[in-house]
Amino acid sequence: MLSSEVQRIVLLVGLGILGWLLVYTWTQDFGPRVQDAPPRQEAPLTERSGEPPIAEFPEAEPRHDVADVPAESISAPVRDDDVPVDLASPEETAPAPVFEDPDRLLRVRTPVHDVWIDRLGGDIVKLALPKFPKAVGSDERVTLLDRRYDHVYVAQSGLIGADGTDRNGRPLYATRSDEYVLEEGELEVELRHESNGVALTKRYTFRADDYLIAVDQDVDNSSGEAFEAQAFAQLKRDASRPEDSGVPFGPRPYVGAAFTTPEDRYHKIDFEDLDDGTFRVEAEGGWAAVLQHYFVSAWVGTPGEVNAYYGRRLNDGNYAVGFVGPRFVVPADQLASVSAGLYAGPKDQRRLEEIAPHLNLTVDYGFLWWMSVPLFHVLDAIHSVVGNWGVAIILLTLCVKLLLYPLASASYRSMAKMKKVMPQVKRLQERYSDNRQKLSQEMMALYKKEGANPLGGCLPLLVQMPVFLALYWVLIESVELRQAPFVLWIKDLAAMDPFFVLPLLYGVSFYVMQLLNPPPPDPMQAKVMKAMPIVFTALFVFFPAGLVLYWLVNNLLSLLQQWYITRKIERASA
Known about the structure:
The chain is 34% helix and 26% strand. By secondary structure, the chain is of the alpha+beta class. Strands 5, 6, 7, 8, 9, 10, 14, 17, 20, 21 and 22 form an eleven-stranded mixed beta sheet that branches. The chain has an eight-stranded antiparallel beta sheet with strand order 11-12-13-23-19-18-15-16, with no helix packed on it.
């Protein structure tokens, strides 16, 4: 058996490695990567007589925008010997002044979306989520997409290529109405544009219960010549960080781009990485997404088509993430259609998995995803029965304790035996106080004789740490637990306890557990262990209430189990 000095070193090294992994993973997956957003300035609404409200922008104030459409070179085949190419379209080098016109905007309201579409280009320039309040009890809803002077995040689509209608500037569409309302079923919103004998219809299909929006572009070629183009779809966004509901002083959720590629099912790219060059990859079907806390927007390609996906920095400092589809030709007097899907909403794992392969991985659980995913499914199954996420966490904790019972039981037996031999250990320390080598030999012999293990009590803690980390990511990433109430004062299990009741109860339970454990033979270890309840209580003050609830219940169950095993061993000895 190892000496107490070696055991202490092994324990400290193990805890150090565990702490380093925790900090490293937080930094990689949730650390700050982008600048904070400037103060939010909502675009006011105005009423026009006899017409629905339209978002109002500053009147006739010129603004020099760059053209957002990608150049044709972005869809060129990717080769290993490719030299960097200029992916800017001609308009990007010579931007023309444009004006924000409230008359260009039309509004679409559904049970899950509140959408504003700009007739110039047919882009979605604002999208709110009626079912997701910004805070508990607030009437203000989460705005996912938005176009303001201090923030840009829009969903764009169109046609480029030899005859593309977006090649030399965005087309101006016409619509039948300024406002559309959907209460149930399905709604199609058509935007029409005609030029040189080619009629283009961009059609958005909304569903009352789905966050996936179908986007079709129909080409009716009456020009007498063949029409050649490529469809593009992209998300244009600045690098600002949205308002988070994250834990103060805790890890910050990832904000950035993500793709699925033939080599990597889930490939994240920070916006700042696009400053150094353009990301390009070809994928069959595929998707390109922009992630933030709890929510995601993603363009999904048509299955079976090989699309050129890209992420790039625009000349205006914003970023574009999307894809260009394959070239298609519409003969004279023929019709053709190209399609894509736009998902804009919460990170619903089941729905995302149905939409496209690997899209559910945008629910980013970090390197312990293989443990977090089954934990979430078990938690979700329990919740479907009990109807309360807090109760589901308690029952999940009980399941984890039952699963780890054999291991924990052996450890608690070892701890009980350690407590029993402590008087003999103290006598040995007094007898061999001037001979550390002899003391170590005698203590190891005593431990072996009594079947005690000084490190046995640390084993349950080390085994539960991966579960602790995996459940942390489940609570901070799963939108299902966002603003989920528990009891009384806890209105949001994904936020910190506002009155610190759970962290204080946890600290008390930790202290009581230490009373049942034998004090470490090393004085320095004893001092460290006495400080642990205070340190962990201070740390858990900033953790999600659901996670502290898990750890508190875990401590209470451990106390019962340890008390039972200790009493059993004491009775057997008597």
